[in-house]
Amino acid sequence: MQAWLTDLQHLLAHGDAAVLVTVARVEGSAPREAGTKMIVTREAARHTIGGGHLEWKAIETARQVLREGMRTPHARRLERFALGPSLGQCCGGAVVLAFERLDVSDLGWLSTLAHRLAAGASTVRSVSFRSSRNGTPPGGAVGHTAGLDRQDASAESAAAVATVMLSEPEPGVETPDCLLWDTGTPGQGDGTMLLTETIAPNDWPVVLFGAGHVGAALVRVLGTLPCHVRWVDERDAAFPSPEAFAALGAPNVAIDANDAPDEAIDAAPPGTSFIVMTHDHSRDLDLAERILRRGDFVFFGMIGSHTKRKQFEHRLAARGIDPLQIARMQCPLGVDGIVDKSPEVIAISAAAQLLQAIEAHAAGLHAREHAGVAVPGTIHSA
C-alpha cells in the first residue's frame, strides 16, 4: 500500500482537511522524482518531497491553499520552484508542485484507489488545473468521481475543470509514471494543465528463510521498506515472542513457522525476491534448487562464503540446474566492499543489494513498457 494514501484516508475520515502535495514535474536535478507526495495539515506535514528550503516553501504554500478552502473547498494550485536561484539548493534544477486541498468528500475516490492497489491493480489518476493568462495557476472549484469512469461528463460536471478521475492504464503499462500536460488552446493563454499519474502497487514481495540473528536483523530493516515479507523457518521457537515481534514495528512482515518451507517458494507470486539464510546448508541447497527452477524471481540472495558458493554451483549443476540460472544466485550476500560480519551490518548490506535489484527490475519494466509508445499531445478528462 502507498503510505501516503493510508495516512490521507485516516486524516480525512476524522474530519480533517489536508493538502496533497505532488511533485508534478522535474526539470534537471531535484531531490525527489515526479510522483513523490507529501501531506500537509494545519498542524503537521507527513512524508517528504526532499526536505530543505523547497519543502519548507511547499508547506507554507500548502497552508495557504488550506486557508483558501474557506472560500473554495477544493482549491488547487500549480507552482514552479527553481531550486538554485530562488531556494539556494545545490540541485540546480526546478520542480513543479501540485497542491490539492482534500476533505471528507474525497474519500470516495481515495477508497477506490486503495482497493485497486490492494488487489494489485495499477490506476491512472487525472486532475486538471486551470491557470490564469499570466501563467499563475489559481485555485478553482473541483468535483470528483469515486469509481473508474470512462464516460463523458455532463455539461455541469465538465465545468468543474479539476475533476479527479480514476481510469485503467493503457494495456501493458503498469509501472508508476507522472506527467503534466498543457491541454489549453495554443496561443490562447487559457492555461489548462492536466496532471496524470499511474499509481502502481509498490509493495514488492519478499520471502525470507531463516529466523536466526541475521534474519531478525534483516526483518528490522525490511520492516521500514515498501514490501511484504513472508518470514519462514521450521523452528517455531526461533521466532520472537508475539510481544517482541510487535516491538519490532514491522507490520509488513508475516511469520510462517512451517515444517515444509519450500511451500513458500511455490506459493510466491512471480517477481518475488528470495533470501536464504537458514541454519542448515542442506536445507539451503534444496531451497536454492527450487528457487532457481522457478526462475521468475527478481532477486535471489543466500548468505555464505565464496567457498559455499563454489560447492553449491557444482551441486546445483549436478542436479541439472542451468548455469545461467545459477549465476543469478547472489552468494556471498550483500554489496561489495563491506566485510563486517555482524548481523546488523550484513542485514543493511543485504537490503541494499536487494534494493539495487528491485530498482533495476523496475527500470527495465518501465523501459520495455514505453519503448515505441507515442506520447499523446492532449489528454481529456471526463
UniProtKB/TrEMBL annotation:
Residues 206-354 form the XdhC Rossmann domain. Residues 12-70 form the XdhC- CoxI domain. Pfam families: XdhC_C, XdhC_CoxI. InterPro entries: MoCofactor_Util/Proc, NAD(P)-bd_dom_sf, Xanthine_DH_XdhC, XdhC_CoxI, XdhC_Rossmann_dom. SUPFAM superfamilies: NAD(P)-binding Rossmann-fold domains. PANTHER family: ALDEHYDE OXIDOREDUCTASE MOLYBDENUM COFACTOR ASSEMBLY PROTEIN (PTHR30388), XANTHINE DEHYDROGENASE SUBUNIT A-RELATED (PTHR30388:SF6). This is Xanthine dehydrogenase accessory protein XdhC. It comes from Paraburkholderia pallida. The gene is xdhC.
